[in-house]
Amino acid sequence: QGDLHIDGVTKVFTDFTAVDDLTLDVPRGSFFALLGPSGCGKTTTLRMVAGLEQPTSGRILIGDTDLTGSRPYERPVNTVFQSYALFPHLTVRDNVAFGPKRRGESDALRLADEALELVEMTRFAGRKPGQLSGGQQQRVAVARALVNRPEVLLLDEPLGALDLKLRRQMQVELKGIQTEVGLTFIHVTHDQEEAMTMADTVAVMNLGRVEQMGHPEVLYDLPRTTFVANFLGQSNLGNGRVVDTDGDDLVVEVAGTTARIPKARSTVSSGAVTFGVRPEKVRISDERPRDAGNDVRATVVDVSFTGVATQYLVTVPSGSTWMVYEQNLDVERNHLRPGDEVWLEWSSGHAFGV
Ligand code: ADP
Ligand code: MG
Questions:
Q1: pTM listed for this prediction
Q2: Which of 9, 10, 12, 13 for mutating ligand 1's site (highest number of atoms within 8 Å of CB)?
Q3: Can you tell me which residues the record assigns to a coiled coil (predicted)?
Q4: What pLDDT, on the 0 to 100 scale, is given for residue 334?
Q5: Which atom belonging to ligand 1 lies closest to the Cα atom of 13?
Q6: Residue 36 CA: which ligand 1 atom is closest?
Q7: Which domains, from first to last, does the chain contain?
Q8: pLDDT grade for 1, boundaries at 50, 70 and 90
Q9: ipTM of this predicted structure
Q10: Of 150, 181, 284, 319, which is the most exposed, with the fewest CB atoms less than 10 Å away?
Q11: Contacts of 292 (CB under 8 A, 6+ apart)
């Protein structure tokens, strides 16, 4: 009960398919992120859940109730947009009390105060939106949606207008609010770090479809498509070929070397395969690793210090550029320079194939 089901939903605008046979099951009380590049159909999906847009085909249900055809205000759903859309002439408290008042609820102001407490905006209840910062206005917008006690709260890039620091802070706060109220949050973003930070489940969308869905750590560790491997963090990818199998491993020729991928970590079991390994899983050294196996010779092209890590760009024998992150545990160790011949090495358990 209270679960959201998007069941084979397609949305065609004239001759353009914005959402393509989308199926998602979102359990009640989860923090679910829809992540994807601009134009992949995220907003269209939310608008269909909200009832602002009708699917061309397919059904949307909350629990056993089919929402198809019901009006937006009849749905147990509220939306928070990037533009806060607060009423400028009303105080914060009256903005939040607006929905309950319109429904004739006698305790509208008490409900508004409760919602404002939840987003820690009690002190600002008497102000007008114009007297608030962007982050504070966004909190009011969240309170104004929560006061209606929806079963599902839709958030469409709600932090998009905030600067980076405030955004990081609001990510943690919004997640805290969701845990406290226990409602289903569907959070749309094109920011992979935001999705991974906030959500217990992430669906990666591309061209109107879900490419992969799951717990953020699982998506990051084991991407099943090259799109996901590149969209969620960085990946070193190489065109490879499966040349043999050895126990639980595939033996792959890639980037001018031979490397292993555990069979369970590859969507491909023979022939052409795209080999992948994350930059922070690769060790870089000017000495050949002792347990050779998953290693390759490389030439340093660029070294940049990012604070948390040093980022190396290197070329591997196939001519591709790979990236390596090395944590700055000991800055004095960072002695590699462009032009240096180095060895890269990783454990096969960190490689993946798609
Ligand atoms: P996102 O939110 O992921 O950036 P949208 O859902 O807004 O993507 O849009 C998906 C695609 O559908 C885009 O190519 C967009 O131009 C198109 N689209 C969205 N709304 C309409 C509309 N009302 N009419 C025609 N095309 C639309
Ligand atoms: Mg959008």
A1: 0.92
A2: 13
A3: none
A4: 66
A5: 25
A6: 3
A7: 4-221 (3.40.50.300), 234-353 (2.40.50.140)
A8: low
A9: 0.98
A10: 319
A11: 345
